[in-house]
Specification:
By secondary structure, the chain is mainly alpha-helical. It contains three helices and no strands. The longest helix has 20 residues.
Length: 84
C-alpha cells in the first residue's frame, strides 16, 4: 500500500517522495492543498475506496504514514461491512 500511495503522490501531487520518511510532512515537502485533493481522488480510484467527509482534511494527507493509516482503517471498515 505504501508504494501505491507514493506513486499517487508522485503522479498527481507532482512531488518526489521516494526518499521521504513515512512521517515526513508532505505539505512542508511541497504538496499543495489542490494536489492533496488530486492525490486523494487518485487513491480512491486506484484502491476502490471513498474517503468519508470527516476525513477530508489537511491532517489526513499530512504524511505517507497518515494516509496509509487512514486507508487501512477504511479497508478494515469495508471488510467488517462485507462480513455483516
Amino acid at each position: 500500500m505504501i508504494e501505491t500511495i507514493r506513486r499517487a503522490i508522485e503522479d498527481k501531487g507532482r512531488l518526489s517522495v521516494a526518499s521521504l520518511a513515512l512521517d515526513a510532512d508532505l505539505y512542508a515537502a511541497g504538496l499543495s492543498p489542490f494536489a492533496a485533493i488530486q492525490v486523494m481522488l487518485e487513491l480512491e480510484r486506484r484502491l476502490a475506496v471513498e474517503f468519508p467527509k470527516p476525513m477530508l482534511n489537511r491532517r489526513s494527507m499530512a504524511s505517507i504514514g497518515a494516509i496509509a493509516a487512514l486507508l487501512e482503517r477504511l479497508q478494515a471498515d469495508a471488510g467488517r461491512l462485507q462480513a455483516a
